[in-house]
Amino acid sequence: MPSFPAGGHVIVFVCAGCGAELTAPLSQVALPAHAHQKYGNGVQLPVLMEPGTFAVESESESWRPSWPSWEKGAPDAADGPGIHASADGLLSGDAADSSVIAPGDTRGTVLIPEKSGGYCCGLDGADGPNMACEVCGLPVASRIDDCSLWQAVWLAPNAVRRHAIGDTSPAPLPWADLTAGAMGTPPYEPITSWGGRHFGLYHWWSWSPRWEAAAGRGLAHMLATSGGRPMSVPHGLTAEVFQRALDALLSADGPPLHAALAGPNLPAPDTDADLLLVPEHPQTGETWAPAGGNLAYLVPLPLGVWLWLAFPEPHLPADPPPQVLPAELLRDDPLSPRPGHLFRIDAGVFRHTLLRLPAAGDPWLREVLENLPTYVRTGLF
What's the confidence (pLDDT) of residue 303? Predict the structure, then answer.
């Protein structure tokens, strides 16, 4: 994840019960696409948020674990508040916005021992808030550090308040400065997992969980605007990420749609493109848009993922040719090998995003969602 000055007011969260400070000073950034991702089995994922930042999940973005029922009036017709899952259009809910921070940014809190059930290798928050205000004992947050989940602290929305500190707030960086200082997110990374009591930790190279989550959100937008028509994306890594799923989920009939990469430091987007894969501002969450009123549909991608797609770095083989360099001169950090399987899109992020888009009620997209478990079993997701 790239480092950059956060945007918005510098604030601390305080206890709604007694006013005690519960966090370090924080600035707001956009909610990561992988915020609620569940990855693999027994996998050790890192901290979700950078130190000194927080992100907000609005009530329309909140997650619930149920599969959809498309019958009008069914109890689980909605996956969560504010989604487009029924013929009646937008559904409403009463959930409040939640904020998420890095565990190291908490202050003045203690764990609640009796709220630690349901976990595997750590805390998963299944029993409700598991952190309390140290001063008054009010439950104020849920710490998440279980295996296969991103480590984070989710603040209970009705138990905390924001308190602004200082008279100034850092302005969001303009796109030119942002892209000049940001680094791309590599598509492959080492994954660490528990191998059982007798095997301990073990590692392997895999597609990045961040990429799988970003592709899930991007694919949902691509399908929602496609109307079921076939679609092509740029060759190379972009096609490796998206094309297999597009070919499997879209019809082969009808005039094809064309998606292209667009954004800062790239040439003006192709006027014939129907969709543009563009970056999201990591501070504000706003999607980059071309000048001149381009009517193409904008598919949002996290900045780090977009940078790697737009300006790919050379990927060298993992094993150098023999006798090129003596072993003592080889670099300390070995070159990353390619994963041993095809790219798989994150099913949970895909489903969550698609259900919140207006096209989710289209019959062919309902069928995609109903068949999602089958697509998971076949390795598409």
Answer: 96
Cβ atoms of 63 and 213 closer than 8 Å: no
Residue 139 CB partners (closer than 8 Å, separation 6+): 112, 115, 128, 129, 130, 131, 132, 156, 159
Give the burial string for 308-337 (b: 16+ CB within 10 Å, else e). bbbeeeeeeeeeeeeeeeeeeeeeeeeebe
Average pLDDT of 276-284? 96
Q: Which helix (H) or strand (E) segment is 98 a member of?
A: strand 98-101
Residue 210: Cβ within 10 Å count: 24
Neighbour-count burial for 364-377, b at 16+ CB within 10 Å, e otherwise? ebeebbeebeebee
Q: Which pLDDT tens digit goes with each residue over 116-148?
A: 776 678 888 888 899 999 999 999 999 999 999
Report the C-alpha gap between 185 and 83 in whole angstroms: 30
Structure tokens belonging to residue 94: 């009463």
Distance CA 183, CA 355 (A): 31
Residue indicated by tokens 């907000």: 56
- Overall residue count recorded for the chain in this entry: 381
Contact 144, 154 (CB under 8 A): yes
Residue carrying structure tokens 């302005």: 171
Neighbours of 184 (CB within 10 A): 17
